[in-house]
Amino acid sequence: MAELMKTIGIWLSAYFTLSIFSFLYKDNPFYKLAEQIFVGLSAAYWLVYTIYNILIPNLFNKLFTDFANNWILLIPMVLGIMMLMRMFPKLEWVSRYPMAIMIGTTAAIAMLLSFQSDFLSQIAATIVNPFKFSSPVDIVGTILIIIGTICGIYFFYFSKKPEGFYKIPSKVGIWFLMVSFGASFGYTVMARISLLIGRLDFLLRDWLHIIK
Amino acid sequence: MKSKIPQFLAFISGVVILVAAFIPHTPFGMFEETLTNWFMIISSFAILLGQSSLIQSNLAKISQKAPDWKYHIATLVSFGAMLIFGLLWGMENTPGILGQGEKIAENLGAKPFDYLFEYAFMPLSSTMFSLLAFYIASAAYRAFIFKTFESNLLLITAVIVMLGRTSFATVLTSWIPDSLHFLRLPELTDFIMQYPNTAAQRAILISAALGVVGASLRIILGIERSYLGGDK
Amino acid sequence: MSNDINLTKTLRERRIIFLLLVLAVAIPIIFPLGLKTHSTPLTEKAFELIESTPAGSPVIISFDYDPSTVTELQPMAIAIIEHAWRKNHKIIAMAMWPQGSQMADMAFAEVQKKFGEEKVYGVDYVNLGYKPGGMVIIQAMGRNLKTVFPKDTAMIDYDDIPILKNIKTIKEIKYVVSLSAGDPGLRDWIMTANGKFGIPVAGGTTAVSAPGFLPYVNDQNQLSGLLGGLKAAAEYELLLGYEGTASRGMNPQSVAHIFILMLIVAGNIRVWRNRKKEKMAKEVKNG
């Protein structure tokens, strides 16, 4: 029975795969149906995991098994229920309370961590003596990092159209950004092709058995 | 009250986290621990909110007979099926209301929730994103054209990186003498990624970090209030 | 009328490109060219982190992705688990994406085929499941791991799981590997686990996001190695000495890249010819 169900499952996967691919020809009912099923499954998946991985172990289980030590969890529970009030236009304002706590907490944590990781550490990593390296490639590369980083920041921060000499760092900043976007494009091609490989591999191996 | 108290709550929670970063001892450390744990519970309710509004909007489209409304029935049916299977028999090794559902799992080869995940959700999700491969190929033909100096820089880098990350790259440039090894495609690609790309990405990171600090301060100090959804 | 003709031509060209791309990927899957890949410093750095960590160390692998990026990230997950198990590390799996928990189970099941009964759930590895919140949750893990994960996915209490017996906070973890398809993911681990708690962090990301993580690979050791995309997964398989799905994937990947490059060349020739034609037409018009 399980073997039969596996075969049915593989055909179902192939059907969904081809339904989505059919969009490449043009929008059609097969694609639309598959798209909506995807939305439904995805939402329910998230919901089930939220219930079993968070709400039950982190909230309800603690409240039901050891209320005396966990009664304080009633506060986030009430705040959570207040969050659900957003669904009702008249009570929408109630959801602002839990939202404010979440936003305030995230903002403070993000501020501290971004400042440390993306500002201080990045500056420290940029201020490196290029001539401490023995290889000419590393020396040139490190000089490029220093110039590119400074010019890039200059381009982002001095948004007023620069004139004369002040144009140069801005221009150099753009060149570095263009090289980076080119590299990103190359990597994006790589990523998208990989996903296609995965799907065609499934069709040719698991469904059609053309390859073993 | 509808907007002042939330602003005050955002301020207090922000300040508690900030102070706890510098004085991690009681009571600030304890406040921080409590807040971060509450955060998880409140955000799970936020997820519930998201799913509820999805159902609401689908029901509205069906009742109003909006264009393509019939397909939204499929959304609700697939949502209902996955939800019920998950609640009744759980998923992976998590038990559901009716336990682990050994019998049904034996017949199906997996729990119903996991079966739907493997044979419906996985192919749908991965195929949906693989469509982008086709559009990027089409864009390469239509939009990647030699034009200005800047666009040429982008194009040449993309070509080197794309070629440098293939298995052909080593073969194609193996004739380059050892003294000029850094010009071989794989090494040239590594150089581009390690230096000019890192410089540009670092400039973006540093600039964005300053933006995050500014935006966060505005939220904590109550200057930025758009998350409250109006000034009522 | 002329617009209609152009639109039909564009559509036809596009469909031909689509078809050729399918062939460029499918043919090397059916008839592999036997292309080999070589390892790069970023992959070697991640490998070295796991290689040099002592046996018995508790480590975290965070599955921060979903099936949409499974082709790139699942071979990495399998290779990292295999390497960690070869070194006898105790793996604590968790997920910041809901689907990640299931991806973890699939990866463990795949590697388990090689190790058999040698690796026992709860003793050598555990799946703590999904938690939302990104950096906020990692910060909470720095205070108390049990409060964040009171139970594993099998609903076993934290205290009853042997692997977690002596672990109170994330600070006791020897390294973190985040397999990340976006946000929340690797960035949160770098900022919090490394930035705040000083734990070595390595990452596996999709190729799309890899360039953005390179600034973290620096002398501050914010990121101890980065696997970017299918190529890096193939490199890791090479370092471990086996040929998995990523290595096989490098054949179609390489051919498809060449195809895209040919499209860029063809596109430029087309534009160059059009420009020439327009120039000539202009010259004729002007006499």
Q: How is this structure best described in words?
A:
The complex is a heterotrimer of chains A (212), B (232) and C (287). Chain A has a domain at 128-212. Chain A is mainly alpha-helical and 212 residues long. Chain A has seven helices and no strands. The model of chain A has no long low-confidence stretch (mean pLDDT 95). Helix content of chain A is 78%, strand content 0%. Among the domains of chain B are: 1-66, no CATH class; 144-232, no CATH class. Chain B has helices at residues 4-22, 28-63, 69-89, 102-108, 112-143, 149-164, 168-172, 185-220. The longest helix of chain B has 36 residues, at 28-63. A six-stranded parallel beta sheet of chain C has the order 3-2-1-4-5-6. In chain C, helix 4 links the parallel strand 2 (90-95) and strand 3 (125-130). In chain C, helix 3 (70-86) crosses helix 4 and helix 9 (229-240) packs antiparallel against helix 10. The two termini of chain C are 28 Å apart. Classes of the chains: A mainly alpha (212), B mainly alpha (232), C alpha/beta (287). Chains in contact: A-B, A-C, B-C. The interface between A and B is large, with 126 and 130 residues.
